[in-house]
Design a protein that fits this description.
The chain is an alpha+beta fold and about 180 residues long. Helix content is about 50%, strand content about 15%. It folds into three domains: about 45 residues; about 55 residues; about 60 residues, Head domain of nucleotide exchange factor GrpE (Nucleotide Exchange Factor Grpe, Chain A, domain 2).
């Protein structure tokens, strides 16, 4: 008995079984496609949630860190205003206070670093507008135009993001300096 013989007794007005099978196959393909898309969307949502969770964990302390940087700046300013000669001539008690301030500054910076907050390195002397904010152009003091002359305020990053740019003065490009840059 062939497939055609099986379908000979189809009542008039009823769909042909071959049409029903074709419709079911098409619906099956459509449902498989929808399932695959739903699974892909679920996976994308899971990955996005994991990434957002990691970002929240890394950057949750941002506001607190900015406030702590003000304290670190005050420690640095206090220590910078103490000339070495005055420190050497100070009483042992005053020297102990100074050492305590230095130790507290080191401990604060170490605690910030434990939370992914790092100082921006300016030792190479190259100005990077993504990390530095130029507050003035000054005489180059022998440095090429556009390079960092002085760091006025230390900058910091948190994770891969800029927390605060380093405030720097930049060497003025001297006419006829021959650095080849326009």
């Amino acid at each position: 008995m062939s497939d055609e013989d099986e379908f000979e007794n189809v009542e008039p007005g009823e769909p042909h079984p071959a049409d029903v099978i074709a419709a079911l196959n098409a619906e099956n393909v459509e449902l498989k496609d929808k399932l695959l898309r739903a699974l892909a969307e679920t996976e994308n949502t899971r990955r996005r949630a994991e990434r957002e969770k990691a970002d929240a964990s890394t950057y949750a302390v941002t506001r607190f860190a900015r406030e702590m940087l003000t304290i670190a700046d005050n420690f640095a300013r206090a220590l910078a205003h103490l000339p070495p000669a005055v420190r050497e001539a100070a009483d042992p008690q005053v020297q102990a206070v100074i050492e305590g301030v230095e130790a507290t500054e080191r401990q604060l910076l170490a605690a910030l670093e434990n939370y992914g907050i790092k100082q921006i390195d300016t030792s190479d002397g190259r100005f990077d507008p993504n990390l530095h904010q130029a507050i003035a152009e000054v005489a180059g003091e022998g440095k090429p135009g556009g390079s960092i002359v002085n760091v006025v305020q230390t900058g910091y990053t948190i994770g891969e993001r800029l927390l605060r740019p380093a405030m720097v003065t930049v060497a003025r490009k001297e006419p006829g300096s021959g650095d080849g840059k326009a």
